[in-house]
Amino acid sequence: MPQMTPKTSEVLAQAMQLSPQERELLIDQLVESLDEGPAEAGTEEAWGDEIKRRVDEIRSGKVKLIPGEEVERRIAARMRRARG
């Protein structure tokens, strides 16, 4: 992992003095700025097709949704097993 420049370290130190809510807003803006590049040709269309396919599978009954609480329970159980 690259080392932080002195300027980056200074910005981080200043950011750490912000309230949690202000840091969250700052993080959101920084992450959003990473996604501003031009999308690869066809990416948005491909995702649109994928979303439509998944919605169609749900509506037709081909796939069954799992409630979020159940997913969280399963993940927690797997993590406990992985930790030993």
Global structural class: mainly alpha
Number of domain units: 2
Round the Cα radius of gyration to an integer and report it: 21 Å
Categorize the overall geometry: extended
Oligomeric grouping of the chains: single chain
Beta strand %: under 5%
β-strand number: 0
Helices, by number, come to 4
Tell me what you see in this structure.
The chain is mainly alpha-helical. The protein folds into two domains: 1-34, no CATH class; 43-83, no CATH class. It contains four helices and no strands. The longest helix is centred in the middle third of the chain and has 18 residues, at 43-60. The model has no long low-confidence stretch (mean pLDDT 92).
Notable characteristics:
single chain; 84 residues; mainly alpha; 2 domains; 4 helices; 0% strand; extended
In short:
With 84 residues, the chain is mainly alpha-helical.
